[in-house]
Design goal:
alpha+beta, Elongation Factor Tu (Ef-tu), domain 3, Threonyl-tRNA Synthetase, Chain A, domain 2, four-stranded antiparallel β-sheet, binds zinc ion
């Protein structure tokens, strides 16, 4: 077994292509490191990557790394201090080597669903705040299949409130609001962030990425989102589970796989 934390320290931070263009399904990249974990399974470090790692409320992207006859199936991606380690299984051909320029391909259907779910999560944050009439903090969130959810620190909503939450959310979806991201220095964060949960516990950094749904909210976030709320299709709340001081709101979007 490889000590992936130690091994990853040798590499520069991976350029995260999904931050600047979440619609990138395919890209070339250079192999900076590859190590066998066991059998046909390897960790691969690239200079830049279209694969979003597991974390920040998102599941890991999956897909393929290819070179000629060689095919590595990317099963999960870990962010090890800014270095992305692609845990992959060699399914065809020979293993690739350091310095090789490989083709990376996302499982786009799955990623696009996650982009819709993640954007819907931001819209639900807004809808919950609107219906409760105050800022409602979030705890965990998972914007992935099979069971996406967001956790809110509040008493669970009544049936009537739930219907309203769905209505407010779907109004935002139908309005087709642009979704943008800004990179802002620490001093400008208060101007860029609005209607956001957890304002008291934004981690310290010199620079922030803020995802702005026009007229809805601006939330510090490093995930992948759609560029217009219309792409979400339709948001449905599927279940609400009380968890002591908070509740878990399960939801889905139209056209999930
Ligand atoms: Zn986000």
């Amino acid at each position: 077994m490889v000590d992936i934390r130690e091994w990853a320290k040798a590499f520069p931070k991976t350029v995260k292509l999904y931050l600047s263009d979440p619609y990138l399904r395919w890209a070339k990249a250079k192999v900076l490191g590859i190590v066998r974990e066991r059998g046909p399974k390897f960790y691969v470090v690239l200079n830049e990557s279209i694969f979003h790692p597991r974390g920040g409320g998102q599941p890991s992207d999956v897909g393929f790394i290819k070179l000629g006859e060689s095919v590595l199936e990317v099963r999960k991606v870990l962010d090890v201090g800014g270095v992305l380690a692609h845990y992959s299984r060699l399914v065809e051909g020979e293993e690739v080597g350091v310095g090789d320029v490989v083709s990376c391909e996302l499982d786009w259907g799955l990623r696009y669903t996650v982009m819709k779910l993640h954007t819907a999560g931001h819209i639900l944050d807004y809808a919950v705040q609107a219906v409760y009439g105050r800022a409602v903090d979030t705890l965990g969130a998972f914007h992935g299949l099979p069971n996406p959810y967001v956790e809110y620190v509040a008493e669970p909503p009544t049936q009537g409130m739930l219907r309203e939450i769905e209505e407010v959310a779907n109004r935002v979806v139908q309005e087709g609001r642009p979704v943008r991201f800004l990179t802002v220095p620490k001093e400008e964060l208060p101007k860029a962030v609005f209607n956001a949960p957890n304002l008291a516990r934004i981690p310290e950094a010199n620079e922030y990425r803020v995802v702005v749904i026009e007229g809805v909210n601006g939330i510090p976030c490093t995930g992948t989102h759609v560029r217009n709320t219309k792409e979400v299709g339709r948001v449905s709340v599927t279940d609400v589970v009380r968890k002591g001081k908070y509740f878990r709101l399960h939801y889905t979007v139209e056209n999930t796989q």
